[in-house]
Design brief:
heterotrimer, A alpha/beta, B mainly beta, C alpha+beta, A: alpha/beta, TIM Barrel, seven-stranded mixed β-sheet, two-stranded parallel ribbon, 7 helices, 9 strands, 28% helix, globular, C: Thiol Ester Dehydrase, Chain A
């Protein structure tokens, strides 16, 4: 199953993409982008209210929800968000403690995955240059569709050195960037809790579809 | 929740008008010059009775672009982060554009270049007939003050 | 022509080089007095590699691309994010795709992703909504 693990809808203040727009685009481009589902990882919030089940039924594409939060080691994707996590952490805080986030999210039934690690300031690579590595990191985002030249390549060394799992996501803020990078899992993933299990199990890989598209 | 936003801006200032202005009448030459400066070729932007390219409305910046609560040097060191424009009726020669500028939103986030404060000002533009010409949300990225 | 335009339709790109004089001219007519647009020296003192295009100009060039594609359409909305600086004297490319098509009274509305790239990097990205009647 191939999932785009990092996407933003209009709920994120800097995104202009609608969820329906994403689904229409994926249907149109399904020969080039074999995406089975996407995870909406909105900035600094968890969108508990939106219910996309009717869209899943209509388009046959899975829609999961997560978050992208900001920490003292850069940005982190959080999967399996639940009430206990939301009570423990203020997702709108741009200075969360990354170690506490990694550890406590795991204990509370989720998984926290540092995203775009190769990006200046908000990526793990730069922080590891002068701070102790984080404990308990299972995976990082090797392929980010919004990264600039060289940024994804920096992450390869990080993954090799620390043995992290490698995921991929488009980091889409526009409809036409959905699915350009994604993660291929060896089995079906049924819901957010199962996504956490799948990420803990391993066996997945980051996949890159950017060359398949003439456009972005 | 604190009532004070970054730069010490009081929450109650959100939505407050901080500037209003009225332009001189637009001329056909103003429109031609703007279109020509972009290499536009659409005939409708030229001639004796042109309509202005949609983005012509961005010319009307008012007497001040930023809320007085925000230090001017912060703006000078900042960057334009983007705009959202809803267009109304086209601007034509003879039109007089009235602009009202309000402080719409202030928020903080982190990015490639570090900690950033975003200030959103909303401009509402109408012409002499009271018709909406455009509504522009201007987003400016500023650096927060360094901690003492 | 609008009957042929569906989701996924690629907008004919605009590929140009904007000179320093073009930037000065635009900044003058658009009443943008910032010296970072007309002086390499001032721009470098501000930490930039040299003078840059005003964000407004990038936005206006995307609008030009849309007008050249569908001159009869009305631009109802244009929203962009400036993600990186754009410099004069280097090729830039405006492009886009139709991402939604909606029937409206007496016509059709097209929602388009629009992108301005320079040096292979996305510098400005956004969405435009065009109405055709």
């Amino acid at each position: 199953m191939i999932l785009d693990l990092h996407t933003h809808s209009k709920k994120s203040e800097d995104s202009r993409a609608t969820v329906v727009g994403y689904l229409q685009w994926l249907l149109k481009k399904k020969d080039l982008l074999p995406i089975d589902g996407l995870v909406l990882t909105e900035h600094r919030q968890f969108d508990a209210d939106s219910d996309y089940r009717h869209l899943e039924d209509e388009y046959g594409i899975r829609i999961f929800k997560g978050s992208e939060v900001e920490t003292d080691y850069g940005h982190v994707l959080v999967y399996g968000v639940n009430d206990a996590m939301l009570a423990r952490f203020d997702f709108s805080n741009v200075r969360l403690n990354a170690q506490e986030l990694i550890t406590d999210v795991e204990e509370l039934g989720g998984i926290a995955v540092p995203c775009h690690p190769g990006r200046p300031t908000v990526g793990l690579c730069e922080h590891y240059e002068n701070k102790a590595p984080l404990e308990g990191v299972r995976a990082v985002e090797l392929l980010n569709g919004g990264s600039r030249k060289g940024e994804n390549e920096r992450v390869e060394a990080l993954v090799k050195k620390y043995g992290y799992g490698a995921v991929g996501g488009s980091d889409s803020h526009l409809v036409s960037f959905i699915g350009i990078c994604a993660t291929e899992f060896p089995r079906e993933v049924s819901d957010e809790e199962d996504l956490v299990r799948a990420l803990r199990e391993g066996g997945y890989r980051a996949v890159d579809f950017r060359d398949r598209l003439k456009g972005p | 929740m604190s009532d004070t936003l970054p730069f010490g801006i009081d929450q109650s200032l959100i939505g407050s008008e901080f500037d209003s202005s009225t332009s001189e009448p637009v001329t056909a030459e103003d429109i031609h010059e703007y279109a020509a400066s972009l290499g536009e070729t659409y005939a409708g932007y030229f001639g004796a009775n042109p309509i202005a390219p949609p983005t012509f409305c961005m010319k009307f910046r008012g007497n001040r672009f930023s809320h007085p609560s925000i230090p001017a040097d912060a703006f000078r060191r900042g960057f334009d982060a983007g705009k959202d424009i809803h267009f109304g009726v086209p601007i034509r020669p003879g039109d007089v554009v009235h602009t009202s500028n309000t402080l719409h939103e202030v928020y903080e986030k982190t990015g490639r270049s570090g900690s950033m404060v975003f200030v959103v000002s909303r401009q509402r533009m109408t012409n002499q007939r009271g018709e909406t010409v455009a509504t522009i949300d201007n987003r400016f990225m500023l650096r927060p003050k360094a901690d003492a | 022509m609008s009957d042929d335009i569906e989701i996924g339709h690629e907008i004919p790109p605009l590929e140009i080089v904007v000179s320093g004089d073009d930037v000065r001219r635009y900044a003058t007519v658009a009443q943008m007095p910032g010296q970072r647009f007309v002086s390499d020296e001032v721009a470098r003192k501000e930490g930039l590699p040299g003078r840059i295009l005003p964000g407004n100009m990038s936005m206006a060039l995307l609008s030009r691309m849309l007008t050249e594609w569908l001159p009869e359409a009305r631009l109802e909305r244009l929203g962009v994010t400036f993600r990186g600086i754009v410099q004069p004297g280097k090729p830039l490319r405006c492009s886009g795709f139709v991402v939604d098509r909606r029937e409206i009274a007496d016509g059709v509305e097209l929602e388009c992703d629009v992108i301005l790239e320079q040096g292979g990097e996305r510098r400005t990205t956004g969405v435009a909504v065009l109405q055709l009647r």
